[in-house]
Amino acid sequence: MALWQEIKIEPQDRRLLIAFGGSGLAIMAIGGLFALLMLLVRTPAFSMFSSNLYYQAITGHSLMMFIFWLGFIQTAFLIAAGTVLIQRRLASYKLAWTGWALMVLAALMALIGVLRGASVSYHALLPLSTQFPSTWQIYLSFLLLALGMSFVVVVFITTIIGAVERRGSLTSWAAFLQRIPIATFAAMAGLFIAIPGLIAAFKVFSPALILTLQGKPIDSLVSNLYRMNWHIVFHIYHYIPALALVGVAYILVEATTDAKSVYAKQVAKALFLLYPFFVPPTFIYHLLVDPNLTYTVKFVGSSLSLLVGVPTVLHMFIILGMLEARMRRAGYGFFSWFRHLPWGNPVFGSMIMGMVTLFVGGLLAYVLIQEQLAPTLHNTFVVPAYIHPMAAGGANIMYMGALYYGVPVLLGRRLWGLRMARIQPYLMGAALVIMSAFGAGAGLAGVPRRYASLGPEAPASWSTWMNLSLGVGGILAIIAGVSFILIMGMTIIAGKKVASVEEAIKGIGAPALPTKVAYGRTIVALIPSSVFIVGILVLTLIAFGHLWGLPIRFQVR
Description:
Blueprint: H1 11-42, H2 51-82, H3 93-115, H4 126-129, H5 135-163, H6 170-179, H7 182-214, H8 220-257, H9 265-272, H10 274-278, H11 295-305, H12 310-329, H13 346-368, H14 374-377, H15 382-411, H16 418-445, H17 460-494, H18 501-504, H19 526-549
Helix pairs in contact: 1-2, 1-3, 1-15, 1-17, 2-3, 2-5, 2-7, 2-15, 3-5, 5-7, 7-8, 7-9, 8-12, 8-15, 13-15, 13-16, 13-19, 15-16, 15-17, 16-17
């Protein structure tokens, strides 16, 4: 049975998902506007506006895109995982709507704080609160967001518990966990990360809000404690997108190719349990430049961090294996199946480009989390060069694919601008790869991470690297982002109304592929993971060799 034939959405679920998705798209548009302002200031070829605007724009961009857009869209996926995918009604729609309202209020509060001048980035470090009086609104927005998400998490948990026939029976739970889709299991596994993160958020931002409102001088000990706890919170939430995008990828690969795993679903589900095991203890790699930590702690943290990507790499192997096995069953050859994939389907294109950009970002991430390289590269442009293909690429492009499929299904409208949509994921993916490649070169050359301008004493090569990274890659990413928002907006407003899900997903669903032969091997799927491992080793050697041979200038007057 095709995936679309299994989709039945209750009206209440439909309205709730539209509210979360629509709010997320609005926030994405605002975050994109801030990104454009950043590029116009920092790209040497443009150098428009003042440095003050740059720091305000980077705060707005990081908050809207990394915190609130991801928060809204991932909460929408949580709701879908507990309703649409397992055909259940939410335990409490009132509580879910209250959560949505609090999250909207949080986003508005953060936006107002930024517009009032809180240029504190998404770190919002305590000492900056004395310089920017509206910082309290940022702390309050974080607390409201955590509270709103907590309500939805409670609703999801109670919905899942209610879906088990005999809740006191381990046999019933085992049968339920075996029966549910992989994406729903991924959402459940994510709770082991999300709930500690929510608790930590209240612990971090409640005192910060109180101290800021009191207007007292910030003690250095309190400031250091905030900084460490902040890294715990955001390290945890840094990896929720990784877990969520994999869950979404399992849906998209089936929706676009009708592929089924040649491995037992229990294998994929078990891999999701590795995220709660590996992620929380490895926050130390964010603090490898902290002089307060001993070498032993840094070494252990760096070593453990090397295991963080293991479950994602294994999931990508399974998903690529699903594609390979499905296409080989259709009768295509050892490598020829690759060109017969539905490349013109924007949902499929988003999934593939999400995996490609995640691959690129992952390579750079493994260079950055090593104990000897992190202190040198941490405050260079290598950091944005890795985070953008990971978050704006791996997560966001994958989520865009989900919205390409989900919005027509939710609204009963045909996707508007299908030709543009077919190009958009490849444009976004190429833009982020360009931005990442030249941005990494800029970082290795010593370009600092958060300077509004390079300054007159900067080496000439810095301008070249940044013009290529931001001027080319960044602007192309903006164009791709605007295209996506336009497609989504016009689909909502002017998409052709249809009577069935089958008609709504015309052009974005799975092609009718025959099954000619039995095939259960995934040999080609091993290649990307093997290349990834080799790539890590090569980039590490290049980074060490380059940094030993080329002094880096960090200070620009």
